[in-house]
Amino acid sequence: MLNESEYFEKAAATRVRVLSEALPYIQQFVGRKIVVKYGGAAMKDAALKEKVIRDVVFMSCVGLRPVLVHGGGPEINSWLDKLGIEPQFKNGLRVTDAATMDVVEMVLVGRVNKEIVSLINQAGGSAVGLCGKDASLITARPADEEGIGFVGEVTNVNIQILDSLVKAGHIPVVSSVAADETGQAYNINADTVAGELAAALGAEKLILLTDTAGILRDYKDVATLIPRLDIHEARQLIDEGIVSGGMIPKVNCCVRSLAQGVRAAHIIDGRLPHALLLEIFTDAGIGSMLVASEFMGNR
Distance from the CA of 82 to the CA of which of 11, 112, 120, 283 falls in 20 to 30 A? Predict the structure, then answer.
């Protein structure tokens, strides 16, 4: 058993090794935009939430330019319940009638967004909260699916406001509510918003925080994690049924962003403490990294 001085000596050596391993990644990504989709357990668990916030602030402090996009499904459901509105889903999409849309906008834009902004600012960052309506950041249109109400798709992204904010050292926090050209509000899938923003910004990375280890060959076995794949391999996994269910739209979101110029897309387990730092700043990473071509560089 280590005595106290040996323990602290070992812990200090570990910290030095970690920082040393992170250095080339910090140098490589300084000034680059990293779009993070924040959702799942990492939004619900207070301890995980604190670590995600600290990771984002760390990224900003070492010269990366993070942009955070968030959902807020559980909190929306909680408020719908309080207001006596029954949540309804069709093909995995929330059916968003006018009353539900009011709640979605209130919760995502007013409550969840401002809580994240406040936490980042308390941790020493400088966050600014936005939704798709602000400075016409995102223009929406109705989704193709019938019978789901005010669920939208992205038709246009105007990144001027985001560019101005990140160049000034701020951390934009974007909720996935946007309006069409008539001003009608729409609820848009937050993964989709993150992917479209990453593409429009020419981001270095798109990172999706999820409640799974990444892309698995056998969804029951974490040991079958696929650490790295290209667009062709990702599409093949969908065709073969290895990627299925809720993972399909996430992989398609990554593929679409890569096809539009994002250098790498990552699907990682947001339930792991400091998942963002482990994925970006270590040699092995912790999740699945997708790239446009097998010939593209390492993590």
Answer: 120
